[in-house]
Write a structure and sequence with these properties.
Low-confidence stretches: none
Helix content: 40-55%
Number of domains: 2
Number of helices: 11
Shape: globular
Bound molecules: D-glutamic acid
Length: about 270
């Protein structure tokens, strides 16, 4: 039975896991989150690389996945070359859906809503230079939106006004034109799309990269005919405050909370 590891810093990667699970009901999945390091958005590049490699040392040793998905834009834009050079299984990354956004806009105004880390990476700029030169792209590094989404997933109340303040810069009006496509460049955001729709100043197309990631996984991993139900585990590097609530939340994604992973210690690339 194929085994897929799905990595994020918190619960955001569940938006990607959901699509992978639907596309690959035959696969074992281990969801791994560096919750001790959340959020990665404000961390510097070297720190993100060190932490992600340290987590994957443990994942490679304990799970030996056939494929890993980096369900985190902030890590993907920095760490993929290091991961690919270090481990012998393939990696699929997550990046903002800039190409589809450029193809689907009618007004020519698109926004990328992401963490402060993702919007300043060369990787993101390179995607714009390659695929979105004919449209106006507004990059919005939302300082607190990933944490707000994480809090909402934990059942904490987050006010509409606080969410509105995070997304407001993504809504641009120029003369008679206004933003009509927003690429969700952080995997936490699709988990709260219903809230974003409610507080948005006008309707837009919200683009979630998860379906494309699931298709890529299917391309890389041959389908199997399992003779047993798949194992679906979640492992975190940090403590879980309310374990019963977390177990209930994970059960919605068909995951069982398993023992913690060792929290990353400083790890330099090989
Ligand atoms: N979910 C992550 C992403 O896609 C980032 C959240 C964070 O750790 O800042 O970028």
């Amino acid at each position: 039975m194929p085994h897929i590891a799905v990595f994020d810093t918190g619960l955001g990667g569940l938006s990607v896991l959901k699509e992978i699970r639907a596309a690959r009901p035959d696969a074992d999945i281990t969801y791994v989150a560096d919750t001790a390091g959340f959020p990665y958005g404000p961390r510097d590049a070297a720190d993100v690389v060190r932490r992600t490699l340290a987590v994957f040392d443990a994942v490679a040793a304990e799970h030996r996945p056939d494929l890993a998905v980096i369900a985190c834009n902030t890590a993907t834009t920095l760490v993929l070359p290091y991961l690919r050079a270090t481990y012998d299984f393939p990696f699929v990354g997550t990046v903002p859906a800039i190409k589809p956004a450029a193809e689907r806009t009618r007004s020519g105004l698109v926004s990328v809503l992401a963490t402060p880390g993702t919007v300043k990476r060369d990787y993101t700029q390179a995607l714009i230079n390659s695929f979105a030169t004919d449209v106006a792209v507004t990059l919005v590094g939302a300082p607190r939106l990933a944490e707000q989404a994480e809090a909402i997933m934990h059942g904490v109340c987050v006010a509409d006004a606080d969410l509105r303040a995070e997304i407001a810069p993504a809504f641009v009006e120029t003369g008679a034109s206004r933003t009509d496509v927003v690429a969700l460049g952080c995997t936490h955001y699709p988990l709260i799309t219903d809230r974003l729709v409610d507080v948005a100043p006008w309707p837009v197309l919200w683009l979630d990269p998860a379906p494309a990631i699931a298709r890529r996984v299917c391309d890389l991993l041959p389908a199997s005919n399992p003779d047993a139900p798949p194992h679906r585990l979640a492992r975190f590097t940090g403590p879980v405050d309310d374990e019963p609530a977390m177990r209930r939340l994970l059960a919605r994604f068909d995951l069982r909370l398993a023992e913690p992973l060792p929290a990353p210690v400083n790890r330099a690339p090989d």
